[in-house]
């Protein structure tokens, strides 16, 4: 029995051998959503503004801009995925969408006092829809 347990490929296979049950060969891992809300998470941006609640999403790495415009100066770089966003707002069109999400980049590129806080275009954020239902609109947003 010990040799069989050492050769077992997965913990599930070990349990199946011990219990004497069959494990389907096509068992697939449970899918994890690309994006979800985390209502209790808190963040404080470079201006001292506090946020409660965020969304945690898969993203394509890219620039973080100080304003929600594609011509706005770059202040940070988002290296890692998934990442969090605290709110959304409308801005300039970027690849067919005018929605942008507010976050903090992983690396400061310019304007160190801003601490890489800024916007990423919605097209790089993998949500079921834009804006993500339940995520707050940025309080300074004019729309």
TrEMBL record:
Keywords: Signal
Organism: Streptomyces jumonjinensis
UniProt protein name: Secreted protein
Signal peptide: 1-27
């Amino acid at each position: 029995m010990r040799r069989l347990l050492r050769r077992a490929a997965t913990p599930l296979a070990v349990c199946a051998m011990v219990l004497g049950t069959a494990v389907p060969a096509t068992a697939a891992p449970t899918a994890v959503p690309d994006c979800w809300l985390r209502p209790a998470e808190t963040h404080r941006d470079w201006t001292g503004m506090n946020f409660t609640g965020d969304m945690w999403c898969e993203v394509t790495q890219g620039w973080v801009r100080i304003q929600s415009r594609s011509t706005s100066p770059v202040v940070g770089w988002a290296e890692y995925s998934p990442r969090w966003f605290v709110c959304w707002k409308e801005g300039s069109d970027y690849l067919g969408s005018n929605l942008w999400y507010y976050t903090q980049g992983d690396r400061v590129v310019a304007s160190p006092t801003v601490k890489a806080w800024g916007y990423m275009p919605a097209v790089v954020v993998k949500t079921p829809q834009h804006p993500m239902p339940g995520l707050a609109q940025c309080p300074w947003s004019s729309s």
